[in-house]
TrEMBL record:
Site (Part of a proton relay during catalysis): T32, Y95
Record-linked SMART domains: DHDPS
Name of this protein: 4-hydroxy-tetrahydrodipicolinate synthase
EC number: 4.3.3.7
CDD domains xref list: DHDPS (cd00950)
Localization, UniProt: Cytoplasm
Domain of life: Bacteria
PANTHER family named in the record: 4-HYDROXY-2-OXOGLUTARATE ALDOLASE, MITOCHONDRIAL (PTHR12128:SF66), DIHYDRODIPICOLINATE SYNTHASE (PTHR12128)
UniProt keyword annotation of Amino-acid biosynthesis present: yes
Family: Belongs to the DapA family.
Length: 282
């Protein structure tokens, strides 16, 4: 976003090009790190369309279309399908805290209404709603629900999902600190925050883990450990957007109720970026 909060379409296209060049495997457009919560319907749809246009078929685009209203999630998912998205990522309904049956019915309704591959997204630390493995198992039997982004950071949860849902259901980590270990357990990849600022390294680490090269994957991951932590020094996406601004990739814009990264946190994160080789040492 520009400093005034308006969407910076030119920088959006440049960031997509950068990720393609860096070896990113797919882009999530309007994920929760993309400030989806502060975009209106038209902006949401426009960002997805512009991302797909910028990607030009070079890598898949997954559209973030989750909502705490089932009707709204259906609308966003349908719009993403019409725009040409390869798949959709749907966060669990936030604030209204549905039951497990409510979660099942919510996702089933979206899947039945829109015939596009859909990935569940469980991040109870942000939504106050935890989708349990038994619910995921039920949903894994829906043909166009193809996987889950599991962001609890709980490796036992990852193991349980892999054991219960079978090889045909994709289990992605949504927690950078445990992502490599998740893949080494049998997970299928990482939908990452850290990859927003260090995509090539994250892609290389995930590729090594997927190939079973645990030593290489862990060594690469160790070089990103401080980033995994400090990109959450304040609420995501405040730190990651500030980091990209410092790296010269985007403008400084962010929308209320999010605020720019505080000065003490800037000092900490700037040093972490320098240590990672992402900023020049001065």
């Amino acid at each position: 976003m520009h400093a005034d909060g308006s969407v910076d379409w030119e920088r959006l296209r440049k960031v997509v090009d950068w990720h393609v060049e860096q070896g990113t495997g797919a882009i999530v457009s309007v994920g929760t790190t993309g400030e989806s919560a502060t975009l209106g319907f038209e902006e949401h749809d426009l960002v997805i369309r512009e991302t797909i246009s910028a990607a030009r078929g070079r890598i898949p685009v997954i559209a973030g279309t989750g909502a705490n209203s089932t009707e709204e999630a259906i609308r966003l998912t349908r719009d993403a399908q019409r725009a040409g998205a390869d798949a959709c990522l749907l966060v669990t309904p936030y604030y209204n805290k549905p039951t497990q049956e409510g979660l099942y019915q919510h996702y089933l309704a979206v899947a039945r209404e829109v015939d596009i591959p859909q990935i569940l997204y469980n991040v109870p630390g942000r939504t106050a709603c935890d989708m349990l493995p038994e619910t995921v198992l039920r949903l894994s039997k829906v043909p166009n629900i193809i996987g889950i982004k599991e962001a609890t950071g709980n490796l036992e949860r990852i193991r349980e999902l892999l054991d219960r849902c079978g090889d045909g259901f994709l289990v992605y980590s949504g927690d950078d600190a445990t992502a490599i270990e998740s893949i080494l357990l049998g997970g299928h990849g990482n939908i990452s925050v850290t990859a927003n600022v260090m995509p090539a390294r994250m892609a290389e680490a995930c590729a090594a883990a997927l190939a079973g090269d645990a030593d290489k994957a862990r060594d690469l991951d160790a070089t990103m450990r401080a980033l995994h932590s400090d990109l959450f020094i304040e609420s995501n996406p405040i730190p990651v957007k500030w980091a990209l601004y410092e790296m010269g990739l985007i403008d400084r814009g962010i929308r209320l109720p999010l605020t720019p990264l505080s000065a003490p946190a800037q000092d900490t994160l700037r040093e972490t970026l320098r240590s990672a080789g992402l900023l020049e040492v001065k």
